[in-house]
Here is the input.
Amino acid sequence: MEQYLLERNILDVPSGCEPSIEKGFGLRPAALSDRQALVEFNSRVHHSREDAPPDEGIGFWTDDLISGALPGSAPGDFLLVERNGPDQAVSCIAASLCLISQRWTYADAGASVDFGVGRIELVGSDPAYRGRGLVRALFGAVHQLSRGKGEMLQAISGIPYFYRQFGYERALEMPAGRGCHPARVLSLGEPGVYRVRPAEPADLAFIRESAERMARRYLVSCRRGPELWRYELDGRNRASFIASRLAVIETEDGVRAGFMAHSAAVNPPRNTSISVELFEMESGHSWTQAAQAALHYLRKVGEASTRGGKARFDGIHFWLGETHPLFQVAPSMLPEVLEGGCWYIRVEELPAMLAHLAPVLEARLAGSILAGYSGDLLLSFYRSGVRMAFRDGRLSAAVPWQPQPSRRDYTPDAHGHAGFPDLVFLKLLFGYRSLSELLYAFPDIKVHGDEPRALLEILFPKRPSLVWPLA
Here is the structure.
């Protein structure tokens, strides 16, 4: 893959990412020798506003990734487009992005499967070279790089609409949240029966086990092994833009009762709050009293990062999703309601993805009124489709199928049992929306027959997800 990119300035790429790099530009994977140039480039182009100085936190994040501090990362996971000088001896970075490889889990009905995910981050271009198709070419290249690593999907968070042109659909929940102003914490009284402290290496096994138990509540989550949990504890540059901290919640006797992952500091003007990404308690312990102790702790974390009150600190935000236990038992403690977001998802090969998810789909079917089902489910995307073949409750095949939408006889063989426009089916696959919600929102979704509708609702229910991704 690297040699391919080095030898060509114009890429032969599928899926709407046609080559468009003009003469004078070259696309290649980064090398360790590009470390300082990429740090400076990303610090400059990823800022909170046009007149802002370079963002050092973004630079430290870039350095962690290109240096290999994140386990599994390497310089070649950055792709860059260079602007070559007239003599070809001098060049500058015109655009760049990074692939962060990770494992996500899809779990429900007592079954689960893991799969490789390529998270795309730090997508940026120099203002002087925008509008030339450089990012489009980078996406074509990064899709090839991700495919070569065996990753079944790519994911990205970011600006509205833009990534749709590269084959992405907003299809996976980014959790909503609740929060409060730091001053409100003082009205809650003393922390009570729990105390919170920074996590230590000896806590990592407990944290990992708690996180794995927490993941069972969610359809999609990000998997971390011991090496990655150690990185989250102390492997990242503490000044990184996305630096986080692990903390342990324990009883007055020092018994571990829970843990949380939270941002390390406020970072005005981009971010003036402390955010909590994970919060989990052991069975038998009070979520409400633990949250009270956590709020006192987080208020101190935020105040300590304001540089003696010079930086703004105006929020403590828990980004845990609407269904999180803490929000069920203590909503008044966190009165501010925070709107969630949505991941952009691109599935490399949908039939292969469906086949890979078979253990979960079969478990859902086995626990339903259609247990033991045999038959085909034809899914039309109007220009393409998938045939899912079930035999005695097992998914025996998931293969490409070609619908014939121009035929006027509305038979399953021509039009399928259900039709979904564009990439809307991904919202159903990843539990972001129910079939009823999609039918209401998209009039050109069609389901033909009661049994296909029941089957779709059983196989693809709406389910919450909580992905704390590697970054």
Remarks:
- DSSP finds 15 helices and 20 strands in the chain.
